[in-house]
């Protein structure tokens, strides 16, 4: 509890009457309020900044000589599904902190879809012990497509209202257009619950143009991270829907969007950065929010302006500017020290006035224990077999809807192709890169299996399977033949979730993700090594993708145009309905 006595001690520290916990000398302060850079000394007490460049002499228990390094606020990820990193929050800190990210705004809808409110609370329990700050965007759509998918958990209005009252919550998590434009009462009640707590509502305005964006904005949706083209970003900004410019593993939007912002001299004070979904290997190799900043600087933006997008802009948007996003008295001491303002590679990272990473890497964070029920969430029907993947059809050939993947994006196109019918069945056509894609219900509720066709994976043999499958997180599997698809699925049952590849009736490689079927309990370094091995094995099977399992995890999403796939069947995303795979036969 923050009491008057604690505040009095902080004021005494600011006045020089109380010894500081830490003083950072000889910095070049990057002021995100004035765009100035000037020499300064920073005084810290009780996790907070209490003085900047004061003339008063202050004693400190610890002094850091920054040796002329630039001091910038800790970076903020405005929207992330933490589960997609494949790591627990404890392990994730080891990877993001060295890149300067000190705050995550997480929409943990993945674990909520698997295990409901219990899974969500288990994820954020003891978050104050993490080396980064964690705020919650309360999942608004669990399930994402009610009536069109099976999930393990449900968050109704009552649960969402309860979660929004938590101090750690900052917003209602992303709402896709169908919920708002369709004026569905459950989601309107969730919006009202968030507004009642004076918290914003996050958007997911994929594919919307001006007329629908007006309705969306009128529904109090405050932001959107789904812009792919500059014109989309501009349309949203014009209507007060603040863009989060995303750079994930399979959705790479920074270069195109920020190039447009720079070329058109667009004001940036209402633009933010996020990762949304990024695998641990990509974070380790490229950076986290630091990557977004660096790419923007490389495109020609002034470094101070790019840093503001990653700090004070996000803090203001989430109404946290009194706590984070700047280096100023009264704010938490989340500070990144950079030797070169044009090279976003931190020399030292400080969170709550404590050094959490330096040139030697991040300080370790002990792994906490998770409830046993979260480690046993994959329950495939005992009757499951390769026969469940059969696509039956009449005639000699069938005209089918195909999910056609778009490189580096999660959106897809619907194309139509004629497929040969062999003895009443449609098979994958490897020569045309048309493979089978199936979803297997994994919560032990109904045993459903649905199968469609997909183009873009490039597999020449075998199959890939994943229990990470947005947002329902049933098992999704893609393959050249039914037998290998079944082998890969059964391997995930054995592992209690994860990734698997199979060929010639044998498992090629697999990685266990037992926490909700979404996350590993291994250290980050081991997960990265295993993912490199997994991806190398898939490459040998013909798939050219950099992040094949990330692409697999999104391809069935029933809220991203044009087509999705759930255990119920093929989904017309914009029509929000189940449609037939086969259009006509002859």
Automatic annotation (TrEMBL):
EC number annotated for this UniProt entry: 3.5.4.2
Domain of life from the UniProt record: Bacteria
GO biological process, one term: adenine catabolic process
Residue ranges of every copy of the Adenine deaminase C-terminal domain listed in the record: 409-573
Pfam families to which the protein is assigned, alphabetical: Adenine_deam_C, Amidohydro_1
UniProt entry keywords in alphabetical sequence: Hydrolase, Manganese
One annotated GO molecular function: adenine deaminase activity
Cofactor: Mn(2+)
SUPFAM superfamilies according to UniProt: Composite domain of metallo-dependent hydrolases (SSF51338), Metallo-dependent hydrolases (SSF51556)
Keyword Hydrolase: yes
Catalysed reaction, written as an equation: adenine + H2O + H(+) = hypoxanthine + NH4(+)
Record-given protein name: Adenine deaminase
């Amino acid at each position: 509890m923050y009491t008057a006595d604690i505040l009095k001690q902080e004021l005494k520290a600011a006045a020089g009457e109380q010894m500081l916990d830490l003083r950072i000398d000889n910095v070049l302060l990057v002021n995100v309020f004035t765009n100035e850079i000037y020499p300064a000394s920073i005084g810290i007490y009780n996790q907070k900044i209490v003085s900047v460049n004061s003339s008063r002499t202050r004693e400190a228990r610890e002094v850091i000589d920054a040796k002329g390094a630039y001091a910038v606020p800790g970076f903020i990820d405005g929207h992330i599904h933490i589960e997609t990193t494949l790591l627990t929050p404890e392990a994730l800190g080891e990877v993001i902190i060295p890149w300067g990210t000190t705050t995550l705004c997480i929409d943990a809808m993945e674990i909520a879809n698997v295990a409901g409110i219990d899974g969500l609370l288990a994820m954020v329990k003891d978050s104050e012990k993490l080396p980064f700050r964690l705020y919650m965007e309360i999942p608004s759509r669990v399930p994402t497509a009610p009536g069109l998918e099976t999930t393990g958990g449900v968050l109704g209005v009552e649960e969402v209202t309860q979660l929004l009252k938590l101090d750690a919550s900052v917003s209602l998590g992303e709402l896709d257009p169908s919920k708002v434009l369709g004026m569905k009462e459950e989601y309107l009640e969730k919006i009202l619950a968030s507004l009642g707590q004076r918290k914003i509502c996050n958007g997911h305005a994929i594919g919307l143009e001006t007329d629908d964006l007006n309705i969306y904005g009128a529904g109090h949706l405050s932001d959107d991270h789904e812009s792919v083209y500059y014109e989309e970003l501009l349309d949203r900004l014009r209507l007060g829907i603040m863009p989060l410019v995303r750079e994930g593993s399979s959705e790479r939007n920074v270069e195109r969007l920020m190039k447009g912002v720079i070329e058109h001299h667009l004001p940036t004070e209402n633009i933010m950065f996020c990762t949304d979904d990024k695998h641990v290997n990509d974070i380790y190799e490229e950076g986290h929010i630091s990557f977004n900043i660096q790419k923007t600087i490389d495109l020609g933006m002034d470094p101070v302006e790019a840093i503001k997008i990653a700090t004070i802009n996000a803090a203001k948007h989430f109404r946290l500017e009194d706590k984070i996003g700047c280096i100023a008295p009264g704010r938490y001491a989340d500070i990144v020290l950079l030797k070169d303002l044009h090279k976003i590679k931190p020399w030292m990272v400080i969170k709550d006035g404590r050094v959490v990473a330096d040139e030697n890497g991040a300080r370790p964070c002990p792994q906490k224990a998770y409830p046993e029920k979260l480690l046993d969430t994959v329950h495939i029907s005992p009757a499951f077999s390769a026969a469940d993947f059969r696509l039956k059809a009449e005639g000699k050939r069938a005209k089918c809807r195909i999910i056609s993947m778009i490189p580096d994006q999660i959106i897809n196109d619907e194309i139509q192709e004629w497929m040969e019918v062999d003895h009443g069945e449609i098979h994958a056509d490897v020569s045309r890169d048309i493979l089978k894609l199936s979803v297997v219900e994994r919560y032990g509720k109904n045993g459903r299996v649905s199968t469609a066709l997909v183009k873009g994976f490039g597999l020449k043999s075998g199959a890939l399977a994943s229990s990470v499958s947005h947002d329902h997180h049933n098992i999704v599997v893609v393959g050249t033949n039914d037998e290998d698809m079944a082998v890969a699925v059964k391997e995930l049952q054995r592992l209690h979730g994860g990734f698997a590849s199979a060929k010639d009736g044998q498992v090629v490689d697999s990685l266990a993700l037992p926490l909700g079927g979404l996350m590993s309990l291994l250290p980050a370094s081991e997960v990265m090594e295993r993912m490199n091995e997994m991806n190398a094995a898939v490459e040998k099977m013909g798939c050219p993708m950099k992040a094949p399992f990330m692409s697999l995890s999104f391809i069935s999403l029933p809220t991203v145009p044009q087509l999705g796939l759930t255990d119920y069947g093929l989904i017309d995303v914009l029509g929000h309905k189940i449609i037939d795979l086969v259009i006509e036969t002859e």
